[in-house]
Amino acid sequence: MSVYTTVSAGDLDAWLVRYPLGELVDLEPIRAGIENTNYFVTTGRGRYVLTLYERLPADELPFYLNLMAHLARAGVEVPAPAPDRSGALFSMLCGKPASLVDRVDGAPRLAPHEHDCTEIGAALARLHLASRSYGARLANRRGPAWWRRAARAVRPFLDARQARLLDGELAYQAGLGRVTLPRAAIHGDLFRDNVLFADGKVAGIIDFGFAATDAFAYDLAIAVNDWCSRPDGDLDRSLAHAFVEGYRRHRELTPAERAQWPALLRAAALRFWLSRLHDLHLPRPGELVHAHDPAGFERILVHRADAAPDLPGARAA
After folding, report:
1. Share of the chain above pLDDT 70, in %
2. Are 301 and 266 in contact (CB under 8 A)?
3. Residues 42 and 144 in one domain
4. Are residues 36 and 175 in the same domain?
5. Domain holding 202: CATH number?
6. Which residues constitute the domain of residue 85?
7. Which end of the chain is more exposed for a tag (fewer CB within 10 A), N or C?
8. Is residue 290 scored above 90 in pLDDT?
9. CA 115 to CA 239: how far, in whole Å?
């Protein structure tokens, strides 16, 4: 949520004419994140988040925005996109595809407790259950093919130890047999800063820019790596147990998902180590840009590769 494209009040006034939302009252840039340009927008009729999509091609946006609308209708804690007068969920603003979604009141849990992990685990399971009836499909653009391309791009910036870690993990992932896991639309980036809490409950799951059709258990592994890791990268077993137990309140994992859990944790750590390396060493020009430190996910990958834990609390087949 950086600002790569500057939007003036005049630009937005002209664009908002297509929406039945009243006149612009306030426009404020959001100064966190790394993928898109985001602003808080207040109009005469409500409060919204404006997103200008910096990397996503316009032909992929219906997948993300219709998914959010589908999940919101199903009762999942997801802000609904605002349609314009024609029913469209996005249009061009300052040369970029842009959308408005309802603004959610709440704050992220950046230092979560077990209760928080249980709550978001349950919300993620409800998201997965609802996504099974979402008919659109989209390949994961940050999947294994991208890992290999990103690895080549960042290799010149790695020391010998990091290069060995990267090569070893790519070889490990490539050597895994193909296993069919339950899949449909996933969030793909369910980090602590993409979940808003209010009164101890999940109020909003935001930032669907990495949503794709992929394995539910991989989505769970992505979230557990972020929500349940200690600063040294090791897994906090208590938090991980709470997260998985929350998930299992609504959706039990299959034997194949349980068997693949250690490899999925490693895959999720590799994907985010690579993306943060890429953003750090090969950044795009932008205003208010914030790149996350890749060292955290390097530590997570080291721990998962050394001794990836079994799925906590899951029942045996």
Report:
1. 95
2. yes
3. no
4. no
5. 3.90.1200.10
6. 9-102
7. C
8. no
9. 9
Task: Write the single-letter amino acid at 9.
Answer: A
Q: Does residue 317 fall inside a structural domain?
A: no
Indicate if 200 and 65 belong to the same structural domain: no
Question: Do 144 and 165 have their domain in common?
Answer: yes
**What pLDDT score does 228 carry?**
98
Q: At what angle do helices 114-131 and 216-227 cross, to 10 degrees?
A: 160
164/170 Cα distance (integer angstroms): 10
Q: Which of 49, 77, 102 is the last residue of a domain?
A: 102
Its pTM surpasses 0.85: yes
Q: Go through the chain and tell me how many residues it has.
A: 317
| Residue 109 falls inside a structural domain | no
Q: Residue 296 belongs to what H/E stretch?
A: helix 295-307
Closest CA to 225 of 121, 301, 173, 154: 301
Rounded-to-integer distance, Cα 250 and Cα 266, Å: 25
Question: CA–CA separation, 155 vs 10, rounded Å?
Answer: 44
All residues at 6 or more sequence positions from 29 whose CB lies less than 8 Å from its CB, including other chains:
3, 38, 39, 40, 288
Long-range pairs for 231-234 at CB < 8 Å and ≥24 separation?
231/296, 232/299, 232/303, 233/296, 233/298, 233/299, 233/300, 233/301, 233/302, 233/303, 234/303
Q: Please determine, for residue 317, whether its predicted confidence score (pLDDT) is greater than 60.
A: no
Measured from the Cβ of residue 52, the count of other Cβ atoms closer than 10 Å reads 22
Of 89, 88, 84, 99, nearest to 7 by C-alpha is: 99
218 Cα distance to chain centroid: 12
Same domain, 80 and 173: no
Residues 6+ apart with CB under 8 A from 52: 4, 5, 7, 36, 37, 38, 93, 94, 96, 97, 98
The closest alpha carbon to 233, from 210, 263, 261, 265, belongs to 265
